[in-house]
């Protein structure tokens, strides 16, 4: 296939898309404001700002279709590009997913359960809504937040001033939203794909564990009752169909006492779907490319059980993972930096207990017992 896919954003998600596209014979053009974007070594990279219309026009002229590895590309740049070249997912879907308030309003319209939420424009509104929702609750920026950034957890009335001091200045730039706190037992995500022809497929629901708002580990399939599993996938389908979505996306949900509550959607391939590279018939990266190119979607059937571990800050020693029969290593080639996602590992096994044993071993050898513990617990208690 002598087609060229343009990707706005050149991070690890773009890098894994390029790797998945190579066997399909695809070519790539990447676009990122950072000259050291980690997908740069794999394909030609345009280094320019996301609102640089001249650079965007030159980029559009080189590609057959444009997609994203980053959801905060200005939606008007995406819309402007869409007048020149097909852009998937549709910029209108990107615009909804970029704003927590529009996203949550959409979930509500579609009858998807979710925590209490309110648009917040002043300190007084914050105080009133915090009292109405009850404490704890979470103040978040509506736009431009990710991985737990731009959030303040209010635990007592005394925190209202502190939360306003921390985020009040953002009210004009990003907007603010207050959310009721969900005392969930589990966090899960649906990673799903919708084709240009409306075909829809979802991978088995994934269980996720976050540390300081950042994904630490994922296990698939998640431990969920069949009805919850079906409900989660049904919600994802409802959102995708409403938005006329094309490509892969993730819907993150809290699971509390058997009830699922939607948190947010990511309009792109997702960290909680990295296990699909080795753990399913077709990876999220390949299916995203198939979707945006209008090709038939691949099966999302998974093979056994899989666990993904994120590496933050710096890469650990690869030997303990590579020493496992089912261990797979992904080094994004990034410079180490505190909290930065620099790579991940996936371990897979047909047998949940054997996978738990392998994870325990890796945790011990890397001195990361805390990181593997929740995944081991989930695999042992299926
Ligand atoms: P987010 O950026 O909204 O995905 O938030 C990052 C993480 O913070 C989530 O994965 C949860 O672990 C936690 N979190 C966010 N919103 C809530 C909420 N309303 N209730 C409880 N925990 C939350």
UniProtKB/TrEMBL annotation:
Protein name listed in UniProt: N5-carboxyaminoimidazole ribonucleotide synthase
Q: Which segments constitute the ATP-grasp domain?
A: 104-293
| Source species of the chain | Stenotrophomonas cyclobalanopsidis
Q: Cross-referenced HAMAP family, in alphabetical order?
A: PurK (MF_01928)
One Pfam annotation reads PurK_C
Name the lineage: Bacteria, Pseudomonadati, Pseudomonadota, Gammaproteobacteria, Lysobacterales
As given in the record, the signal peptide range reads none
Q: Which residues bind ATP?
A: 100, 140, 145-151, 179-182, 187, 210, 263-264
Q: What quaternary structure, including any partners, is listed in this protein's UniProt entry?
A: Homodimer.
Give the record's keywords alphabetically. ATP-binding, Ligase, Nucleotide-binding, Purine biosynthesis
């Amino acid at each position: 296939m002598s087609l060229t896919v343009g990707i706005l954003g050149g991070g690890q998600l773009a890098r894994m898309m390029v790797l998945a596209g190579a066997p399909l014979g695809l070519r790539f053009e990447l676009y990122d404001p950072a000259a050291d974007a980690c997908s740069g070594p794999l394909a030609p990279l345009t280094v320019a700002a996301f609102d640089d219309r001249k650079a965007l026009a030159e980029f559009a002229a080189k590609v057959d279709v444009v997609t994203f590895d980053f959801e905060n590309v200005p939606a008007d740049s995406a819309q402007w590009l869409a007048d020149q070249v097909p852009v998937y997912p549709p910029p209108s879907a990107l615009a909804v997913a970029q704003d927590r308030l529009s996203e949550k309003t959409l979930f509500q319209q579609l009858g998807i359960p979710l925590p209490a939420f309110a648009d917040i424009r002043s300190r007084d509104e914050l105080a009133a809504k915090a009292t109405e929702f009850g404490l704890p609750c979470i103040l978040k920026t509506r736009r431009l937040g990710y991985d737990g950034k731009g959030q303040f957890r209010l635990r007592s009335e005394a925190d209202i001033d502190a939360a306003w001091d921390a985020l009040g200045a953002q009210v004009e730039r990003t907007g603010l939203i207050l959310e009721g706190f969900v005392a969930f037992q589990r966090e899960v995500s649906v990673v799903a794909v919708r084709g240009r022809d409306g075909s829809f497929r979802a991978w088995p629901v994934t269980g996720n564990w976050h540390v300081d708002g950042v994904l630490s580990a994922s296990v698939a399939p998640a431990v969920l009752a069949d009805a919850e599993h079906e409900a989660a996938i049904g919600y994802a389908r409802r959102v995708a169909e409403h938005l006329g979505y094309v490509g892969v996306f993730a819907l993150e949900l809290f699971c509390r006492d058997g009830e699922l509550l939607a948190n947010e959607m990511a309009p792109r391939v997702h960290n909680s779907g990295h296990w699909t590279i080795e753990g399913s018939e077709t990876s999220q990266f390949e299916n995203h490319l198939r979707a945006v190119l209008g090709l038939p979607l691949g099966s999302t059937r998974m093979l056994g059980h899989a666990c993904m571990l994120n590496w933050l800050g710096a890469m650990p020693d690869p030997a303990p993972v590579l020493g496992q029969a089912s261990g797979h290593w992904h080094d994004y080639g990034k410079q180490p930096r505190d909290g930065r996602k620099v790579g991940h590992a996936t371990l897979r096994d047909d047998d949940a207990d054997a996978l738990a044993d392998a994870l325990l071993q890796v945790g011990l050898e890397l001195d990361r017992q805390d990181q593997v513990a929740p995944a081991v617990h989930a695999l042992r208690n299926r």
